[in-house]
Amino acid sequence: MKLTANGELCVVASYDEGLFLVEQNGEIVSSTKHNEGFYNITLASQPYTTALAGTRDGCFLFARLEDEICTRVSKHFSQRPICGIAMTDNGLLIANGSFDGRVILTNGDGDILWDYQTKGEVWATVISSNGRYVCAGCGDHKLRFFHNYCDTSAYQEIISLENSLPQAATSVATSIIRTLIDLYIKYGLVAYGYRKLTALIHEHQESHIFKDHLKQFLEIVVTDTDATKDAHFMHASQLANERKYYEAIRHFQRAAKDPSLRSAAQRRAAECFTEIRLGTASTSAWRQSREQYLDENARHILFSLARSYEDMRLWREASKIYEMIISWDIDFRNAWDKINIARAYTLGSPINIHNQVKDYTGATTSLLGPDTPLEVDESLKGIFNARSREILMRR
After folding, report:
1. How far apart are CA 326 and CA 333, in angstroms?
2. Above 50 in pLDDT, residue 348?
3. How far, in Å, CA of 254 to CA of 222, rounded?
4. Burial 382-395 (b: 16+ CB within 10 A, else e)
5. DSSP character at residue 395
6. Spatial separation of the C-alpha atoms in residues 116 and 212, rounded to whole Å
7. Which CATH code for domain 229-288?
8. What is the mean predicted confidence (pLDDT) over 235-247?
9. Which of 34, 89, 223, 327 qualifies as a cystine partner to 281, CB 3.0-4.6 A?
10. What is the reported pLDDT for 120?
């Protein structure tokens, strides 16, 4: 519950009943029935008294408090309940706390401007009057402070440009798009900016002219070492549509480092591997989308195993293991170079492909490590085969 600015009314959000305006004498002056399952509530007073209540459905209820309560529900932006909720004085920015562990800054429609993943449910949030600072209380027993670069003044500038774009003349629209891109990058709103700009450009009668701006937008963003995983995912999707599968896989794998994107990113990477006919890599990527993980040490072991297969001239087996490795990291050592050459040879080929590619390990490498002598005892080959089956069975 919250008191209005003058203290005359209490706004009450009941979990399974709705919203109520209650006077000091206990009389209910207005109410509205809802069964969304309300959690915390917040108020804003400009330009009119507004209440927001987080719901169990992963959105918030917007209520304009007048003689009658007028309500609408925001877009759904979480799969778990919204418990923490706070908004700026003008109601332009909303700091949400979700039980999925995210602190989520949205606008009044529920569009996500940015979010931050914590390790526990977010129970409470507060935001400064101008939106410059956000604080969240989390289930991992930590209090987190955020400096939000996109405060209400910055967002008002962005909104003004966004609203003018669909009806602008082509030459003016080009200038608006470039300015918006600069602002999205400046204020850390890359994912929001790309989604919004895509929608706005689609509404413009000359939308086909501006598609290259979207592409350039993402190309600029992903070159930054601090680029968001969302940006890598969107850029990868764009590259996949252009059939640039190698580059697409690289960016899908970077996006997969974000737990919230891992499943989708690995599925898309698997599709790209399928397009370039790397069946083992595709299968491995599909498995990864179901939460499996191959750490750095295991990748080195597999790489050494593949090199041992090469020494035995078992190119097909080596190729399959290299595919498994690149399904996790397409830039791992020189696995990509090796797989492209190994696939060209048949079982038992006498050609030594070590001479065909840049080698990161020097002499012949087996499971025993980079110092293994060139001639490997025949008795060890059975061990290599057994180790191979053991690792592949774990997959």
Report:
1. 10
2. no
3. 10
4. eebbebbeebeeee
5. -
6. 30
7. 1.25.40
8. 90
9. 327
10. 86
Integer Cα distance of 179 and 168 in angstroms: 14
Which CATH superfamily groups domain 2-148?
YVTN repeat-like/Quinoprotein amine dehydrogenase (2.130.10.10)
In the chain, which residue ranges form alpha helices assigned H by DSSP? 152-164, 170-186, 190-203, 211-222, 229-241, 245-255, 262-275, 279-288, 296-311, 315-328, 335-342, 378-394
Count of alpha carbons within 13 angstroms of residue 227, beta-carbon side? 19
> Residues 302-332: pLDDT tens digits?
888 887 787 777 878 888 888 888 888 888 8
What the block records as the tokens of 342 is: 């190994």
Residue type for 191, please?
Answer: A
Rounded mean pLDDT, 46-61: 85
Which band of pLDDT confidence, cut at 50, 70 and 90, is reported for residue 109? Answer: very high
Name residues whose C-beta falls within 8 Å of residue 293's C-beta, 6 or more positions apart in sequence. Answer: none
| Span 36-51, average pLDDT | 80
Where exactly are the structural domains of the chain? Answer: 2-148, 157-222, 229-288, 296-394
What distance lies between CA 247 and its chain's CA centroid? Answer: 18
Residues 6 or more apart whose CB falls under 8 angstroms from that of 319 comprise 280, 339, 342, 343
Q: Does 364 have pLDDT greater than 60?
A: no
Close Cβ partners of 229 (under 8 Å, ≥ 6 residues apart): 254, 255, 256, 257, 258, 261, 265
Query: Region 168-183: what's the mean pLDDT?
Result: 90
Neighbours of 60 (CB within 10 A): 31
Q: Give the global pTM.
A: 0.66
